[in-house]
Amino acid sequence: MDDLETRELRYFVAVAEELHFGRAADRLGIAQPPLSRAIRGLERRLGVRLLDRDRRGVALTEAGGVLLREARTALDAVAAAARRTRRAGDPRRPLVLVTKAGASHELLRRLLDTAASEPGAAPVEVLLCEVGEQARRLRDGHADVALMHRPFDDLAGFDTEDLCVEGQVALLPAGHPLAARDQLTLAEVSDVPDLPLARWPRLDGSYPDGPGPEVRTQSQLAQLVALGRTLLVIPASSRAWQWPDHVAVPVVDAPDVTTVIAWPPTGHSPAVASLVRAAARLRETGLPVPAG
Fold first, then answer.
1. Residues 16-46 pLDDT 10s
2. What is the pTM for the complete model shown?
3. How many CB atoms lie within 10 A of CB 37?
4. Looking at the structure, do residues 65 and 99 belong to the same domain, yes or no?
5. What is the DSSP string of 105-159?
6. Any signal peptide, and if so, which residues (predicted)?
7. What DSSP state is assigned to residue 184?
8. How many domains does the chain have?
């Protein structure tokens, strides 16, 4: 039988991440012998060796690596299902909309106003996050709907509606010579010896190669730009968090960015449907394209 219990998966993930039965048992709050028996039983049922054990320690086999990835996904899905179920059972709960801090500010403001005018609309709670976090918040059940940006954000598996398309700008320190330009090209902003492009993490958490600083938050980035240590290219609407020490210059050949409203297919509740209708109404009335 291939049925796996969530308890077994939690036990295995703890051992696979700690690579030590004693530490895994402490983490789980159980004794080591039943943990060892559970892992051996799991291996027998699956008919594969998940862990190599010797006097030097514990190591994952190739099969163990596959189960670790799949088990994390399964446990996340179970946890998300529990959160969504609890939220669906609370008639007073607000709808949670997640978006990058500082992104699409005017669109967000107008969307909230339009949504509030829908008959019987649920209250909307705004959850602000850092770059690239919306997909995780939707998948783990902490948010119901998101504003996301194509081609930068991970939209795999979500239902989406396009809202608006905009260009991009280079955000520069106000005193830099390029800040006086009316427009720039990608080639020009990619080759500034004294002002290397900031590097955001990829979807897998790794950073692209390059001389620019590694950044994870908008506040880090804003201060590094103001200090003259980096520049970046961002959607024009993200200028909402621009400091007085920054200047935004249009990058004429940068790819357009499409803002979308996204939600998990399994989470299409009446409240989500109402918010999506509000977004469609807003799009039909003509959303302002941010000035480049």
1. 999 999 999 999 999 999 999 999 999 999 9
2. 0.69
3. 11
4. no
5. HHHHHHHHHHHHTSTTPPPEEEEEE-TT-HHHHHHTTS-SEEEEEETTS--TT-E
6. none
7. B
8. 3
